[in-house]
Amino acid sequence: MALEYEDNYWAEDALFMERNSRDFIARIARMNRNAEAICDCLKASRYVKDVYYPKYSSTRSFYDLYRTPAGGYGGLLSVTFRTRLEAIAFYDALETAKGPSLGTNFTLSCPYTLLAHYTELSWVSRWLLKYL
Questions:
Q1: 118 to each of 99, 104, 108, how far by Cα in Å?
Q2: How many Cα atoms sit within 13 Å of 12 on the Cβ side?
Q3: Closest Cα to residue 81, out of 43, 50, 104, 106?
């Protein structure tokens, strides 16, 4: 490994990572609480067909085996709506940043189809797949 390893990590990146990690534990706890509350609200909505979140999953027991005592189910969730118009109205009304990214310190919303099939959107649209 010593022959292949090259330390090319930029020093300023390390400084930003350290600074951004100072409140990591508190941010994760808040993210877990907020995601679960959002999912509970969505789950109760008559417009929502399904909420995909570990709390409601048939595999929840596996998550529970490995969660820390104060841990949650994470901040990633997915929702489908009963109609396309409801999905569009929900997405348009969201007051969050929109688009794909990994590594932000703020909430992002992005239609799953855009993430999974970005280069195939014309093909996907033929199947009338939901964008949320």
A1: 11, 20, 17
A2: 0
A3: 50
Unique residue bearing structure tokens 């490994």: 1
Which residues, in sequence order, are CB contacts of 71 under 8 Å at separation 6+?
32
Q: Collapsing DSSP states into helix, strand and coil, what is residue 48?
A: strand
pLDDT band at 4 (very low <50, low <70, confident <90, very high): confident
* Token output for 7: 């330390």
Residues in the chain, overall count = 132
The 3-state DSSP class for residue 98 equals strand
Q: Supply the DSSP symbol for 25.
A: H
> CA 55 to CA 76: how far, in whole Å?
11
Task: Give the percent of the chain with pLDDT over 90.
Answer: 55
Task: Indicate the pLDDT class of residue 117, thresholds 50, 70 and 90.
Answer: confident
